[in-house]
Amino acid sequence: MTARRRIRSVLVANRGEIAVRVLRHAKNNQMRAIAVYSDADADAMHVREADMAVRIGPAPAAQSYLDMDAILAAARATGADAIHPGYGFLSENAGFARAVIEAGLIWIGPPPDAIEAMGDKARAKALLAQSGVPMIPGWQGEDQSDANLARQAETIGYPLLIKAVAGGGGRGMRAVHDPAEFADALASARREAKSAFGDDTVMLEKLIERARHVEVQVFADMHGNVLHIGERDCSAQRRRQKVVEEAPSPAVSPVLRAAMGEVAVRVAQAVNYAGAGTVEFLLDDSGAFYFLEMNTRLQVEHPVTEEVYGMDLVGWQFLAAEGGALPATQDQMEPHGHAIEVRLYAEDPLDGFKPQSGEIAWFDPMAADRQVRIDTGFETGDVISTAYDAMAAKIIAYAPNRDEAIDLLLAGLAKAPMMGVKTNRDFLMRLIDSQAFRSGALTIDDLDAWAGAGEGPFAAQPVPHEAAAIAALVMAAHGSGVVRSGSVTRFALPLEADGETLEPFVEQTGPDALKVTLDGQSHRIALVDWRGVHLDYRLDGVDRRCLALRGEDGVLHIALSDRIVSLREPALLGRADAADPSTVRAPVSGAVAAVHVKPGDEVKAGDVLVVMEAMKMEMRLTAAADAVVAAVHAAPGQQAAGGALLIELKL
Fold this sequence. Notes:
By secondary structure, this protein is α+β, with helices and mostly antiparallel strands. The protein has 17 helices and 39 strands. The longest helix has 17 residues, at 254-270. Its cofactor is biotin.
């Protein structure tokens, strides 16, 4: 039996909300909490939360959060007993786990051999197939030549998936529906896999359409005890990246739960697992399930399991790492109620999920009145950088049943918006309130299909008249630098809102009171009170409240219950002309992954000219019109600031 070794201090080799979560656990349990940070995170919440903090390098993750030597040096300098890797970064790096253990520290994670066995998806599937674990038809092997992969794809049949062997989080993965698409998809998957994981080896799998993504939480101690702790449904995905997770799955019966759990335990036992892990499956509409992969770490979505099963998985991680026995048995693992988690990302879902960055003008997790759980690494005044993943927070609702959990989550999202940086909050609210989600019928293909058609939560949403009226009230009646002279009481007020141009006609009807006409409809609005960000107003005879604040750039941010709108006056803010089709510029700050053209090349509208990477996403920049390439100002591996000129075209 392994002797228990107490942890008195822990270094968290991560950032953001998971670092905050683990650091708070340490402090609440009388351990010294130690953070590490890059230059981009010097003032971050996880640094403020820690008892001690050590700089480990510049902003790029490869020079900071992925720098094993710097992290181990920080552990020695602070006298840490243990290292918790969080998720992402080095959490599934077997070499790092071994280095931590060899340094005499406690590794709060699974054994290095288990990480290694499951890290190579091809080897993992070969190992588990021998144990009778159900597998998706596919191919994995050493011959990675383009010609062999194309032959194997023909044998498997289309549609299929190209997947990075060392991948995760949807990166290095491409769905291919036609042989003509295979070569480009293979090159793109390899490039993204090389950038994200340092390994461009791929495998092929039959694409099971209309499938659900269901994963099982497992936990093991060092005494041979292994539990399965229910399932999570993660079928709401965009580009194979999870958006919403819930427990239990609306598609899993108690009988199916037991069957999937038994297989998940068998997977963990096959590699002598210890600690928290997740076994992921595809579930088809017949009830058959197939092994996808095992994530040898804590998952982003672990809170829904904690809420439904009444446990602290981070606490269990510390217990198992110290050599303690699991504090529960399998017959105690019964779900109670329902929990749903949404991932709040700094991104624009209606513009291809383009990553966003900037300073948060207002975000108060406590504003939700504790009706929901909010795990975050950000608050008002913090900066979201393009250097890292775009997730800003997780909002989790727990209730006795699924419908109540959805309603509670909607209320929490309404009360605690993040303002100043565009997020996917409104998209999330439309998604979880949709009939498709409420019915529990969502599959992993639905969001991408809706995105392509501009349907469901991706449908364009006109700016509410209410937001335009509030903007007129704030800008014209409450002083913002755009108030007309005292003798002018009737005027047009041009506004730009989320890329849409509006021109409400404003008539002042009294002190802080207006009549606002837009699209032939008139509304009367009056200011009642404005304290901090809380704006009370009377609209068409009904007293209402919203959140409203003006940024330093003059933009007015308004958060209604179901919509966040940012408005500004184009004339005053020097709005630029429409994009010049003769230039291709970087949409955000990021790295140039590939350049497909050279000066003199003829290109057609829609041709991909440059591929960029930012926040672990790949963006394909295309020609807006038929043209000839006049100049190229980009090269693979180059960093480009947002707006930087990459390609010049002669139309």
